Write the structure tokens for this entry.
Amino acid sequence: MLTHDLILDAAERLIRDRVPVGTTAVQRKVRVGFATAGQLLFALEDIGILSAEDPRSRRRTVLAATFDRAAVVTVVDAAVAEGRMKLDCCPSSNRQEADQ
């Protein structure tokens, strides 16, 4: 279940720590299950926060130097609009429309 908030939280924690991560590390840092951690890794790779998986270590390197919330939201929204990413909840700006 990927949401804007979950992606932002994961991006912020991983960028702050700046250490190579794998699925298990993401599970512990963000407190999600294995499947969601895997989805997060692919989503963060897709938007340029993480590198592709290293075939030997099965870890990913953090590519982003700093966390910019607005920039991450913009990139996630663009990925959703292009169909490269699917979120389980509508963006914050559309929640009011969805509730009506």
About this structure: Confidence is low (pLDDT under 50) at residues 93-100. Residues 4-99 form a domain with the Arc Repressor Mutant, subunit A fold (CATH 1.10.10.10).
